[in-house]
Amino acid sequence: MNIFKNKYLMSIWIFIILIIGFYSSTAFAKLYRVAIIPFKINAEKDMTFLKDGVTDMLSSRLSSGENVEVIGREETEKAVKSVEAVINEEKAREVGAKLEADYVLFGSLTIFGDSVSIDSKMVDVTGNRKTLAFYNQSRGIDEVIPKINNFAEHINEEVFGRVILSKELPAKQSPPVQPDDIHAHPETLVQSFDDDYEGPGERSDLNPAFIVTRPQKSSSEFWKSRSIRELINGIALGDVDRDGKVETVIITPNSVNINRFENNRLLEINKVGEDKYRVYIGVDIADINSNGYPEIFVTSLNLQRNVVNSIVLEYDGENYVKIIDNSSWYYRVTEIPGRGSVLFGQKQKTGGPDTFSSEIFEMVWSDNEYVPDRKVLPSNHSNLMGFCLGDVMNDGGEAVVAYDKSDYIRIINQSGRALWTGSVHYGGSTLYYEMPSLEPGSDNRQYYPMRIIITDIDLDGKYEVIAVKNHELTGRLLKHLRKFKEAQIESLSWNGLGLVTNWKTAKISGYIRDFAIGDFDNDGEDEIIAAVISKDGSVVGTRPKSSVISYDLKKK
Known about the structure:
The protein has helices at residues 2-27, 48-62, 73-83, 89-99, 144-158, 186-193, and strands spanning 32-36, 40-42, 68-70, 103-112, 115-124, 132-139, 210-212, 222-224, 234-238, 247-251, 256-262, 265-272, 278-286, 295-302, 310-315, 320-327, 329-336, 340-347, 360-366, 369-377, 387-390, 399-403, 408-412, 418-425, 432-434, 445-447, 453-455, 464-472, 484-494, 499-505, 508-509, 511-518, 527-535, 545-552. By secondary structure, the protein is α+β, with helices and mostly antiparallel strands. The strands form 8 sheets. Strands 1, 2, 3, 4, 5 and 6 form a 6-stranded mixed sheet that branches. Strands 7, 27, 28, 29, 30 and 31 form a 6-stranded antiparallel sheet that branches. Strands 8-34-33-32 form a 4-stranded antiparallel sheet, with helices on one face. The longest helix has 26 residues, at 2-27. The chain starts with a helix and ends with a strand.
């Protein structure tokens, strides 16, 4: 009995010792202190935003683990000033010693034309470990963030022993499909178009390509156009020539292209409004002047992107003619039940602090021009490019759904009071307005919000919000530089407390510039179409690459 008792007690003690050992190794794991010295920027222009963004990104990536503490920037910069010398490995260790850091990360970015060089080092302050060096030369600022991100992952793995799991999926074993094979099975076509395809899961009855994120309230086609070697800046649907068929109007930076879906292909039937002195940023279609021919509202900027000079085109039976030129209004059309197509307008306030600083009006046709009729939103609440009005709360009233300056979705009443603000970034556009510089030689880009739509997409009597979510590579750390890697379209609806996701498309590579809902292929059923940018052509020697994708909608 005593032997049994002793063995029993011994087992308990061994178990306790093992538990203590386990928690001790976890609780008392080595905590590394890291100092990040802001990178030196060698460039002709002021690149402070890039310097700050790189520092913030490295800090975020390295401090994501429990065993790493990144020393505050202010404290680090104070220590750097006390050294009073060009930072090299020796001086970096001196800075690290002052900060009681284990490691010091420093480096430089050299920008000459389109060439960007990154030279950085991770130094062990004690000198016991070999310095981890990183050098890369690339074309274009867009490549800086991915390379810095790779270096941060390398540091996490080599220095701190943290392996960041890759998002890449194993190579698929399905036979290769040509991107333009429109007769392929929809899921195969999605996979060929999407490097980050999310795979099988619960799919929406509305379209199998939509991933359900909450219980469903309720064709199987996915289509992609051939590649277009231009940037698509906007897309809209409408019977603009009154021939009984819906046309797809696509704007590039300098032209308006009339297209039609025929024989499973998107064919260009006319190119109008070509103007090398304008930058087209938005397009909408509606018959606001009630003459039977829908107008094409094209919001545009001058080449310097600091003046709004929009145009309106209309088919006269033979040609597309400008009925409005050099308008100072942004234009956006919204479909409102019981009222049809409603035109809204907003002026860009001269010298204003941003693109949100003016009121938004409902517009009407009067004396051969579009004039403001009713104010629907006070100033400083929204930019019209990311604005919609409708019964978003399904309570019979009208409220505004719009993006704020950080691309959070907001619901606002027409007096300007915010009723709800989301906590997740949606939208994400690279189109911008150039505000007056805050400092000599620096840019002050104000990015536009993206289109957002309120509609009863599944005809169940409840309105949903349809929005794009472009996933940014930098996590929106860089204020003046945007680089998107993948995109989704989401349906959200009001649940009494906020907007929640109903479904979302599988992720696609690249980013979505604009989207529309309508009978794209003239089959009597609506589709969601989107303009996808695969390459923006920002790197010297490369051309833009865009395409149009379409999802069928199976209505109840």
